[in-house]
Amino acid sequence: MRVLFASLPAAGHLFHLVPLAWALRAQGHEVLVASYDGAEIVADAGLHVSNIAPGLNMFEEAFVRGGTKRPDLLERVQASMGGDREALMTLYAFVNDTVADRMVALARDWRPDLVVYEYFSPVGQVVAAALGVPAVQFDFGFSFTPPLIAVMLEQMRDTFVRNGATEPPPEPLIVHNVPDSMLSEPRPGLAVRSVPYNGGAELPEWSSRRPERPRVVISFGTSIAAMSGLDRVKRTVEAARDVDADFVMAMGSTDLTELGELPANVRSVGWMPLHVLLAGAGGLVHHGGSSTTFTALHSGVPQLVLPNGSDCFINARTVAARGLGLTGEPEDIDTALLRRLIDDDKLRANAAEVRAEIDAMPAPATLVPEFERLARRE
């Protein structure tokens, strides 16, 4: 079976798909990831990637091209920092439209038996409809997607027709990774365990040692500096100075020179796989990105979420509502808040409950027979 994956070229989207792609490869199926600039990061996971639109900037397509045509939506997105999901998704329909013809052309050449796409990329439905093959929609995270997909598909009517898909697209099989106790409402489709993928690395010796005092990880994603500056990082580092814990900053290639000399209990490690850092950790301070949030849920670690845009707000609210984390604004960060993150037994107990719940969910490998039946039209 040949399976084409379609995704935005963002780590928080692609990383959710990797364990499912691995499960398919382990059963001997062929997998190809179709995306554009930035998606090459999953080649490190052993996956083949086709860049169908070299040079394309998805932010420019969404907010310049889409925003020019729908300034009302752009205004809503800017006012809500991306929290207005309906407006944001409609603008991303313009990105999907731009890449659709090239993705359909790739698919006609590669001839997949099944198309899997994450919910920001309903271009996967265009491909499936154009080729007459089944589709699977991966709904990672806490957003309830049916109304969001509906507005995107409405915006993309001409995209389907242009690619020869004149009939309404067939209903995709929906897959989601949210544990029952964190659902805001019932989800259609099949649930699957969230298995963290944060890349591989040669690990330093200290990473496998059990910490002598609480370890708190600080990770604000791959684009925090460009999106909202380092204010959250600065405030967290300064508040950490008087906390009896070791803080590990995993900020990738972000330039941290403006932070100055770090406190003695704060270590910067650049980039390391987050799930490795969270093993044995007492807490995580982060921006609320989906991949980061779900890695913490899988690890059973209490979270302090300081959202800075898009679905980060939903993730922060859901984590706090389940009682396994805290949320706030940058100005809320102080020593007392960090101490509560580490010392609150209720947060730790609830995080452990959700970890056990996730461990009991079906593994990605259990979906492979379902996909095989779907491809055979059974």
SSE blueprint:
Elements: E1 2-6, H1 11-26, E2 30-35, E3 48-51, H2 58-69, H3 71-80, H4 85-110, E4 114-118, H5 123-131, E5 135-139, H6 146-155, H7 157-162, E6 173-176, E7 190-191, E8 215-219, H8 224-228, H9 231-240, E9 246-249, E10 266-268, H10 274-278, E11 283-286, H11 290-299, E12 303-305, H12 312-321, E13 325-327, H13 335-343, H14 345-359, H15 367-375
Parallel strand pairs: 1-2, 1-4, 2-3, 4-5, 5-6, 6-7, 8-9, 8-11, 9-10, 11-12, 12-13
Largest sheet: 7 strands, parallel
Task: Find the CATH superfamily of the largest domain.
Answer: Glycogen Phosphorylase B
**Rg over C-alpha atoms, rounded to the nearest angstrom:** 21 Å
Number of helices: 15
> What proportion of the residues is helical, as a percent range?
40-55%
Q: How many individual domains?
A: 2
Distance between the termini: 14 Å
Q: Per the principal axes of the C-alpha atoms, what is the gross shape?
A: globular
Strand content: 5-15%
CATH architecture of the largest domain: 3-Layer(aba) Sandwich
Q: Average pLDDT, to the nearest integer?
A: 92
Would you kindly provide a brief summary of this structure?
The protein is of the alpha/beta class and 378 residues long. The protein has two domains: 2-194 and 362-376, 3-Layer(aba) Sandwich (Rossmann fold), CATH 3.40.50.2000; 205-360, Glycogen Phosphorylase B (Rossmann fold), CATH 3.40.50.
How would you describe what is shown here?
The protein is α/β, with parallel strands linked by helices. The protein has 15 helices and 13 strands. It has two domains: 2-194 and 362-376, 3-Layer(aba) Sandwich (Rossmann fold), CATH 3.40.50; 205-360, Glycogen Phosphorylase B (Rossmann fold, 3-Layer(aba) Sandwich). 43% of the residues lie in helices and 14% in strands. Helix 2 packs across helix 3 (71-80), helix 2 (58-69) packs across helix 4 (85-110) and helix 4 packs parallel to helix 5 (123-131). It starts with a strand and ends with a helix. Residues 22-221 form the Erythromycin biosynthesis protein CIII-like N-terminal domain.
